[in-house]
Amino acid sequence: xxxxxxxxxxxxxxxxxxxxxxxxxxxxxxxxxxxxxxxxxxxxxxxxxxxxxxxxxxxxxxxxxxxxxxxxxxxxxxxxxxxxxxxxxxxxxxxxxxxxxxxxxxxxxxxxxxxxxxxxxxxxxxxxxxxxxxxxxxxxxxxxxxxxxxxxxxxxxxxxxxxxxxxxxxxxxxxxxxxxxxxxxxxxxxxxxxxxxxxxxxxxxxxxxxx
Length: 211
Description:
Blueprint: E1 4-7, E2 14-19, H1 29-39, E3 43-48, H2 51-59, H3 68-81, E4 88-93, H4 95-103, E5 114-120, H5 136-140, E6 145-150, H6 158-161, E7 170-175, H7 192-210
Parallel strand pairs: 2-3, 2-4, 4-5, 5-6, 6-7
Antiparallel strand pairs: 1-3
């Protein structure tokens, strides 16, 4: 049984299931901040840990991410346990978004309730390995997909992505000078706080559009 955490609000308009990235768990600062921003926009957020991250919590050792089949099984189980009668959106930071996007290419446990996918810093390729592309989930998705990406993300920059073929169901939003954590450099004139707010606004727009 994976660890989950629900942050709910009164009169929610949707439920976002938010999966963490490869190196940080559901309580990482980015995850906490995005949860608070979505709650302030009347969106419930359900976070969870993948099995390897729960294992880290038990013995304090660092483990690599589980292989994709195990990650998919975990995310599927979280979806199945979600019982609120709200539109559901599968979301994730980096690796978590790749898992959610992969699920969007198959028949889900609650196909009518799951309305879309939200990717925060999608890992289009490993860092410094632009030839190892991970485009299939975004080419085979059966659900509307929002990708919020920093322009200079080392795992898929705006220039990189311009050459990729993605499904017509994908919407791309680039945040000026943002990195993989949506953080811009000081000289850009933007802040990470601004970009997190912008990301939350884009998610709200997407949810209103697809619910």
